[in-house]
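Incident log, support desk, overnight shift.

02:14 A customer reports that sequence design results differ from what the structure should imply. Their input is reproduced verbatim below. On-call engineer (initials T.W.) acknowledged and began investigating.
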């Protein structure tokens, strides 16, 4: 039994870390490689296709989508309160530097892990969680980085429209045309490789600063994640694959999109601090993710 779980764990975790490793190696060999084209393709075409496919091609219904969307918002709020307190205690900006503590990498890393661990169920529920996190990046994330409340970035966000259309399909129980499902599947699976490789490339260039404070914030992100995950599982009485997916998604490291938004809207010192947390949490997640996935597979299969 234990051997089967370990084999399954390897099957789930290895592909994700291997592709990130390819990106990291490529980034080290080509330090001037411009990832903007890949990022634009993944953000504007690949990821929206992946979200549409994950939400419309599985057994997911509208009520389940709303349920896990609500759970996602709750776990972000549960991270925010202690996150603000911690940032104040270590004399960091409690607003601008909050992003990497409350917005995890549910898309680039969490969704592939959910897919490999739980198949189509992981795809559907993991996609629901990732889509809400994506919307929060382009609303709450930009507000945190810029300290300005504006709906303009949301109106320009392709994922927002894709999620809205997908929600209509779910609400009215409309089956998406097969040609559309096949097309979005092809592009979406391509996006999984691209975003993981791009994450590896980005990690090869980012540096860690203020090691002590960065370590504190990193441990907060990686330790509080599973704690909040188990709390949500208990409060919402989740079990099986639903509980496992929530646990995995809550336990992800900081999303690299936090750095991209900070780079666009915040001062350099804040962007550098955020980059440090992302690098540190992602590096340590190579240790924590196998443990979390092992627990999910053993107790919530």
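02:41 Re-run completed on a clean worker. Output:
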């Amino acid at each position: 039994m234990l051997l089967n779980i370990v084999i399954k764990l390897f099957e789930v975790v290895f592909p994700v870390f291997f592709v990130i490793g390819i990106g990291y190696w490529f980034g080290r060999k080509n330090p001037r490689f411009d990832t903007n084209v890949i990022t634009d393709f993944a953000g504007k075409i690949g990821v929206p296709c992946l979200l549409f496919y994950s939400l419309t091609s599985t057994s997911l219904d509208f009520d389940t989508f709303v349920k896990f969307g609500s759970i996602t918002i709750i776990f972000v709020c549960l991270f925010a309160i202690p996150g603000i307190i911690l940032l104040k205690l270590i004399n960091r900006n409690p607003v601008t530097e909050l992003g990497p503590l409350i917005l995890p990498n549910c898309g680039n890393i969490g969704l592939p892990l959910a897919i490999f661990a739980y198949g189509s169920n992981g795809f559907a529920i993991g996609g629901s969680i990732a889509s809400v996190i994506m919307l929060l990046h382009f609303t709450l994330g930009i507000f945190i980085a810029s300290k300005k409340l504006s709906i303009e970035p949301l109106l320009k966000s392709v994922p927002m429209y894709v999620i809205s259309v997908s929600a209509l399909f779910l609400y009215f129980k409309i089956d998406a045309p097969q040609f559309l499902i096949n097309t979005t599947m092809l592009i979406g699976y391509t996006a999984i490789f691209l975003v993981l490789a791009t994450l590896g490339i980005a990690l090869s260039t980012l540096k860690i600063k203020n090691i002590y404070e960065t370590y504190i914030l990193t441990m907060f992100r990686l330790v509080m994640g599973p704690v909040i995950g188990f709390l949500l599982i208990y409060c919402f009485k989740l079990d099986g694959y639903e509980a496992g997916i929530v646990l995995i998604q809550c336990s992800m490291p900081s999303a690299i999109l936090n750095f991209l938004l900070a780079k666009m809207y915040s001062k350099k010192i804040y962007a550098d601090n955020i980059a440090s947390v992302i690098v540190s949490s992602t590096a340590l997640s190579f240790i924590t993710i196998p443990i979390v996935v092992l627990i999910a597979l053993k107790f919530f299969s």
